[in-house]
Design brief:
The chain has 166 residues and is an alpha+beta fold. Helix content is 16%, strand content 39%. The longest helix has 9 residues, at 51-59. Residues 13, 25, 27-31, 45-47, 50-52, 76, 79-85, 124, 148, 154, 156-157, 159-161 line the site of flavin mononucleotide (FMN).
Length: 166
């Protein structure tokens, strides 16, 4: 199997967020996709070891902040290379509450979902979310995963579904 073929799939760069007993938390994710239009449903794939997974299981809700090319690249690092278990990520990144969920203020759009189903794989939970609210936050081109790799020169850690060992 040539895993380089997987690198030809296109994604965006997002922060998937929720509450941790009243405190905002979340993680960087590329694995968000729209499943249906009416009713609007979205899926995300979150590693079992990510604290965000446990928090989404507890709250039954998640938000997706769609990062733009002008969003601070530091957001991806804060949410993608630290764990909410031992760090207060939204203490470092400005948040705004939309549809009763915390989202990244410096994003170009957000989508708020209620978990209506989930599927377990050996490493990740695929959460299926019914969209409760969505809106634009600012004018910006949404950041693609290719932009993150080619322009920002970012990396993907082991818990990202797209991780390929060197
Ligand atoms: C660009 C990028 C994409 C990522 N995509 C995902 C993803 O789709 N799903 C996932 O579970 N983790 C993904 N990760 C990894 C998590 O963001 C990372 O493991 C994070 O530290 C988990 O934080 P938490 O323990 O607070 O949930 C990604 C990380 C980066 C930098």
């Amino acid at each position: 199997m040539n895993k380089n073929a997987f690198r030809q799939l296109s994604y965006g760069v997002y922060v998937v967020s929720t509450w941790d007993k009243g405190r905002a938390t979340g993680c960087t994710a590329n694995s968000a996709m729209q499943i249906t239009s009416e009713p609007a449903t979205i899926a995300v794939s979150i590693n079992h070891d990510n604290y965000t997974n446990q928090c989404i299981q507890d709250t039954g809700k998640f938000a997706i902040s769609i990062l733009g090319e002008h969003s601070s690249p530091g957001i991806i690092g804060t949410f993608g290379f630290k764990s909410g278990r031992d760090s207060d990520k939204f203490g470092e990144v400005e948040q705004t509450v939309k549809g009763f969920l915390p989202v990244v203020a410096d994003a170009c759009a957000y989508i708020v979902c209620e978990v209506i189903d989930k599927m377990e794989t050996s490493t990740h939970t695929v959460f299926l979310g019914k969209v409760l609210d969505a809106d634009m936050l600012k004018e910006d081109a949404p950041m693609t995963y290719a932009y993150y790799h080619n322009v920002i020169k970012g990396k993907s850690p082991k818990n990202a579904p797209t991780y390929i060992a060197e």
